[in-house]
């Protein structure tokens, strides 16, 4: 019977995790399942469907609908199969005359208070209530519907007090109480899956209905974060995507991977013809386990937005309007420009920037373009400005430039340090899993200048919040190590076995010095010594300890030092190499891990192998038939510096908007303006395209095949859902350009590119599309030693051999506050928006965040005469901008905070060119600023907006 089970079916209740097995008999069939499995799930395992309404396998059993009744020989009554666990030797009957009568009666009661408008209902054909009515054989309803919830007026025309009008406040889904059967699935999904607790059941008995909180709350005004868990759980049309209401129910689906953050959620893109109806989180996705956030679930409309450019464009000067041309014309123009630059200024005068939003295969081709066609190593990626210190710090200490765990590991952690990250906003699906573990008893330590949602929110609270002064990460991490070493809380056996004991002794001598104690750095960091000591003791003695960090760690002048310090903490406490522990960078963009893996850095070939190694270069030289330069190329900041100096003249920039995302905007614009050929390859005319001479229209993730690699090193398939609107997938565009430059590439499918990656990159040696299709996904390293991938790194030993302890001396940033600039600005993200907003700003997500605002502490605002919503001038040594103020105690006095999602603000005109000592990762998180009242946009903003408008002119077709 198992052969006939649909892989994506709903088993009714979650799988049991017990290793103890139990054998029972259901309807004459023997079945062996783990102890704790429900009878409903056991039946489903052998293909027997028990009718259900309140049960679904994404949430715990509830037993309220009474439709899943069964009979068990030797037991009285008819228990609910969803809440009744299996027992050895029992004989269960799911289909008897008595059960059929009972189920039909239960369903009759449900239908008596439900509108019978199935033919015009948006869920027709996709409604479990409808399906179950058919399953139990209900053909008639004996009860007259007198008191109902679905009629606005009773039969005499008097207003019905039970009627609640539909709530359409959310931009993405509708709540229709008339069709609610009070199964509580939405409420339980909000609690158990998402962890927001925005929904509740209001009233009792016949009066009970789902509520978004207070009577005055709507879906939009409530605590709801629009993750879609409630919509997915709803068995009727009560909670329904507006896209389904508008387009109709989907008829087919394609499993693909989200193109937002580094969690890498798997989705079913559900289609009607060639139109995308909805994105439903895929329950077998190993990164998200069937959950999603507002971006991945609903914010896909940018792919069909009117702003998309669908024709190639060229222009001689950035002051000219764009001219739409054919693909061959665009390729010829771009190739001639680049060839001319190389002939005049040399082959090192051009370079590329790869995209962390494009696939592994596309990124591989772009770095191959510069190395094999331009014949230089001038390649860099957005990881330069976010996680390059992760690559350096973890590479030096552990031996590999990636996180150690899979996301499932968080379910076994006991103490979590979240430092420089706000998963609730930046990585919400992971945050939901973390919060679920915290509600079960794990302890949380948050190291962050702001009081984020992870510090204190309904149903979770951090045990310790180390609200440090921006820029003092190294001092805090070293002080934590000081406590662990001086109080001998470290794991000596682990260190002796897995690390170099002598190096640890040197490190222990360093951190034990009095100047590294919590008391000594209290004034510097702003964190009480007692709190620091308590946090260190908790992490060292609390069981499985895991560390998750983000850009608040890496985007500092000492970003690499902090990453090294984090690795030191994990190693000294023995928290590496097993479930529930580890060092885990939360990657920002969907394929930032993959873009690094693919050799996007100027000093590394794919697989993090330095270009100076002749044996590594030989692999590619033999395959590509070229000579590879042994000298590292230019990083993004170096490219811009060289452009201003006049030695760097041409850039191919795929899927990145460096003018908005990179620091010191005025310097970026000066560098771009000095170039003779800037090729932008993107979906939209972004800010960087203001300085471009060629525009190659890009394809969205819905229009291509390939792979993304998420923050847990998981390689997921991206599958083409629809044809590319502009004619080509991005890898095909890069190939067209390479061939126009004189190459002879002949790839016909991304799988061939992956074959080349596997052939040349040891950590990908065992990766094939066939393997990913079979396994669902695979985590690198995947090779002969680990043919099915590596969920946990460093299990038996570190990749580098012995773990390496490195001293973490605190060095203050050169960016100092003073009388002119007394405040510190730090930056970050917000839940509804993503990175520079190119995608999310072109969706209804702007309803939550239509502009960047500046968070100011009430004390600082009062001193400056600033009130809620006022325009304020935000000035630094680099530049100034204006934006609205919001008064909040989420930030400490002396600290202000903003996002960088909207180009109208251009927040990076404020940030300086200070950067990490090892990797040039910009110091976004520490900028000395002053704020003052303002009347509106600054002169620079007005001038920039005028230039951008002029630069985006497209000449009318002749």
From TrEMBL:
GO terms for cellular component: membrane; oxidoreductase complex. Residues 98-137 form the 4Fe-4S His(Cys)3-ligated-type domain. InterPro entries: 2Fe-2S_ferredoxin-like_sf (IPR036010), 2Fe-2S_ferredoxin-type (IPR001041), 4Fe4S_Fe-S-bd (IPR017896), 4Fe4S_Fe_S_CS (IPR017900), Asp_de-COase-like_dom_sf (IPR009010), Formate_Dh-H_N (IPR041924), Formate_DH_asu (IPR006478), MoPterin_dinucl-bd_dom (IPR006657). Residues 20-98 form the 2Fe-2S ferredoxin-type domain. GO terms for molecular function: 2 iron, 2 sulfur cluster binding; 4 iron, 4 sulfur cluster binding; formate dehydrogenase (NAD+) activity; metal ion binding; molybdopterin cofactor binding; NADH dehydrogenase activity. GO terms for biological process: formate metabolic process; respiratory electron transport chain. Belongs to the complex I 75 kDa subunit family. This is Formate dehydrogenase subunit alpha. It comes from Fuscibacter oryzae. The gene is fdhF.
């Amino acid at each position: 019977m198992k052969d006939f089970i649909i892989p994506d079916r709903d088993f009714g209740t979650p799988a049991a995790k017990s290793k103890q097995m139990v054998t029972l008999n259901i309807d004459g069939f023997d079945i062996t399942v783990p102890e704790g499995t429900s009878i409903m799930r056991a039946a489903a395992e052998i293909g027997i469907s028990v009718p259900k309404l309140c049960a679904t396998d994404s949430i715990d059993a509830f037993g309220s609908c009474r439709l899943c009744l069964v009979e068990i020989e030797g037991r009285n009554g008819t228990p609910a199969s969803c809440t009744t666990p299996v027992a050895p030797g029992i004989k269960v009957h799911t289909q008897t005359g008595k059960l059929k009568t009972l189920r039909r009666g239960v369903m009759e009661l449900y239908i008596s208070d439900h509108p019978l408008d199935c033919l015009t209902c948006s869920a027709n054909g996709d409604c479990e209530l409808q399906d179950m009515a058919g399953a139990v054989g209900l053909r008639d309803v004996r009860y007259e519907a007198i008191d109902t919830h679905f009629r606005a007026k009773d039969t005499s025309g008097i207003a019905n007090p039970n009627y609640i009008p539909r709530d359409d406040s959310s931009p993405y889904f509708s709540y229709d109480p008339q069709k609610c059967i009070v199964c509580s699935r939405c409420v339980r999904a909000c609690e158990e899956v998402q962890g927001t607790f925005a929904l509740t059941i209001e009233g009792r008995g016949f009066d009970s209905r789902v509520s978004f909180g207070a009577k005055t709350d709507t879906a939009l005004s409530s605590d709801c974060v629009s993750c879609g868990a409630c919509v997915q759980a709803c068995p009727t049309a009560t909670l329904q995507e507006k896209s389904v209401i508008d387009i109709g129910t989907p008829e087919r689906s394609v499993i693909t991977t989200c193109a937002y953050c580094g969690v890498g959620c798997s989705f079913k893109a559900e289609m009607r013809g060639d139109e995308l109806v909805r994105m439903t989180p895929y329950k077998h996705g190993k990164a998200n386990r069937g959950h999603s956030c507002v971006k991945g679930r609903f914010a896909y409309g940018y792919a069909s937005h009117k702003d998309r450019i669908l024709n190639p464009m060229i222009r001689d000067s950035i002051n000219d309007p764009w001219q739409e041309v054919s693909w061959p014309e665009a390729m010829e123009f771009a190739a001639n420009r680049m060839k001319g630059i190389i002939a005049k200024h040399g082959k090192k005068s051009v370079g590329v920037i790869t995209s962390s939003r494009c696939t592994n295969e596309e990124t591989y081709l772009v770095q191959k373009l510069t190395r094999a066609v331009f014949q230089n190593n001038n390649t860099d990626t957005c990881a330069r400005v976010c996680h390059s210190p992760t690559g350096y710090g973890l590479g030096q200490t552990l031996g590999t430039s990636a996180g150690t765990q899979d996301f499932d590991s968080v379910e076994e952690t006991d103490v979590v340090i979240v430092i420089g990250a706000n998963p609730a906003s930046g990585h919400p699906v992971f945050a939901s899993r973390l919060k679920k573990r915290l509600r079960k008893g794990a302890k949380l330590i948050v190291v962050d200048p702001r009081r984020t949602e992870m510090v204190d929110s309904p149903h979770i609270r951090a045990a310790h919040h180390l609200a440090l002064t921006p820029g003092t990460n190294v001092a805090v991490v070293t002080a934590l190590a000081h406590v662990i070493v001086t109080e001998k809380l470290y794991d000596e056996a682990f260190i002796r076995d897995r690390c170099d004991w002598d190096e640890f002794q040197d490190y222990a001598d360093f951190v034990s010095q009095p100047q590294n104690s919590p008391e000594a750095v209290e004034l510097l960091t702003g964190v009480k010594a007692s709190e620091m000591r308590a946090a260190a003791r908790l992490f060292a003695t609390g069981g499985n300890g895991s560390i998750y960090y983000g850009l608040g760690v890496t985007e500092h002048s000492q970003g690499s030092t902090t990453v090294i310090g984090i690795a030191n903490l994990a190693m000294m406490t023995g928290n590496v190499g097993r479930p529930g522990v580890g060092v885990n960078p939360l990657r920002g963009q969907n394929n930032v891990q993959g873009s690094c893996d693919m050799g996007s850095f100027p000093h590394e070939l794919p697989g993090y192998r330095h270009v100076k190694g002749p044996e590594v270069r030989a692999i590619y030289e033999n395959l590509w038939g070229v000579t590879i330069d042994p000298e590292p190329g230019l990083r993004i900041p170096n490219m811009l510096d060289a452009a201003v100096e006049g030695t760097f003249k041409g850039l191919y920039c795929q899927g990145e908007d460096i003018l908005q995302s990179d620091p010191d905007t005025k310097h970026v614009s000066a560098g771009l303006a000095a170039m003779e050929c800037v090729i932008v390859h993107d979906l939209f005319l972004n800010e960087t395209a203001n300085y471009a001479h060629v525009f190659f229209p890009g394809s969205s993730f819905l229009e291509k095949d390939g792979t993304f690699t998420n923050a847990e090193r998981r390689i997921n398939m991206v599958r083409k859902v629809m044809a590319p609107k502009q004619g080509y997938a991005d890898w095909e565009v890069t190939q067209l350009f390479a061939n126009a430059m004189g190459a002879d590439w002949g790839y016909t499918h991304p799988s061939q590119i992956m074959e080349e990656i596997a052939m040349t990159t040891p950590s990908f040696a065992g990766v094939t599309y066939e393997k990913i299709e079979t396994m669902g996904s695979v985590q690198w390293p995947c090779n002969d030693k680990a043919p099915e991938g590596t969920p946990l790194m460093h299990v038996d030993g570190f990749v580098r051999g012995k773990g390496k302890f490195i001293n973490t001396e605190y060095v203050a940033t050169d960016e100092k506050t003073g009388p002119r600039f007394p405040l510190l600005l730090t930056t970050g993200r917000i839940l509804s928006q993503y990175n520079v907003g190119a995608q999310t700003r072109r969706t209804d997500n702007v309803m939550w965040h239509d502009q960047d605002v500046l968070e100011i502490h009430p004390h600082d605002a009062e001193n400056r005469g600033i009130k809620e919503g006022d325009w304020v001038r935000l000035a630094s040594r680099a530049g100034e901008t204006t934006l609205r103020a919001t008064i909040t105690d989420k930030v400490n006095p002396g600290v202000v905070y903003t996002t960088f999602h909207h180009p109208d603000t251009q927040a990076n005109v404020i940030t300086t060119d200070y950067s990490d000592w090892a990797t040039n990762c910009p110091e976004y998180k520490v900028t000395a600023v002053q704020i003052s009242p303002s009347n509106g946009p600054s002169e620079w903003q007005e001038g920039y907006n005028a230039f951008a408008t002029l630069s985006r002119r497209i000449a009318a077709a002749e």
